[in-house]
Q: What sequence folds into this?
């Protein structure tokens, strides 16, 4: 990983967390236990503090940043999808932020809520617990069922498992020049977890 101290403040990464070597951590960044930070994620703690709590994940190309004097926090088991931007906000325990969404300053995403992909959550929006929000600007769509929250939680467990798999088996190698005759498939996951669109059909 690329880790940079700034003004004498050095990022902290718990030994059980996995941070991809291409991710960038600058300054006041705290990555808690069992977290996963994906490829090309950028955590710029050069103004405010950035913190991921136990079991949270921040996937590839995500950005975390904030204004001076603010904390940008992903609470325990928070799940941040590919390409999302978090700026001076709080993502509640077990909440999910969908791919390419933007969460602005002062916004709070309630516990076990879901922000749909490509949503824009305005500054200071308070998303109630256990709700689905979507759109640009985002608005409350519905209350989530236990089944939907269980589906989210199972997906987060996959990323917690991926942190362990990555620490144990990921290594930089040279690419092969042809496909092996007996090439295995990457069919690793949690039993019973399928994409939402398949689960609904």
A:
């Amino acid at each position: 990983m690329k880790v940079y101290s700034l003004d004498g403040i050095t990022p902290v990464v718990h030994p059980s967390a996995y941070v991809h070597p291409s991710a960038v951590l600058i300054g006041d960044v705290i990555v808690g236990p069992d977290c996963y930070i994906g490829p090309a994620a950028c955590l710029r703690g050069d103004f405010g503090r950035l913190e991921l709590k136990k079991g949270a994940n921040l996937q590839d190309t995500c950005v975390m940043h904030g204004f001076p004097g603010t904390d940008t926090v992903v609470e325990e088991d928070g799940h941040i999808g590919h390409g999302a931007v978090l700026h001076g906000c709080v993502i509640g325990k077990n909440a999910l932020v969908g791919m390419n969404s933007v969460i602005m300053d002062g916004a709070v995403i309630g516990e076990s809520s879901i922000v749909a992909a490509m949503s824009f959550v305005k500054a200071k929006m308070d998303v109630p617990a256990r709700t689905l929000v979507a759109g640009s600007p985002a608005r409350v769509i519905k209350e989530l069922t236990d089944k939907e929250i269980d589906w989210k939680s199972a997906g987060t467990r996959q990323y917690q498992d991926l942190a362990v798999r990555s620490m144990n088996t990921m290594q930089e190698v040279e690419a092969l020049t042809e496909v092996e005759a007996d090439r295995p498939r990457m069919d690793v996951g949690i039993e019973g977890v399928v994409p939402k669109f398949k689960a609904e059909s």
Summary: The domain at 2-143 is CATH 2.160.10.10 (UDP N-Acetylglucosamine Acyltransferase; domain 1). The helical segments are 146-169, 196-199. The first helix runs from residue 146 to 169.
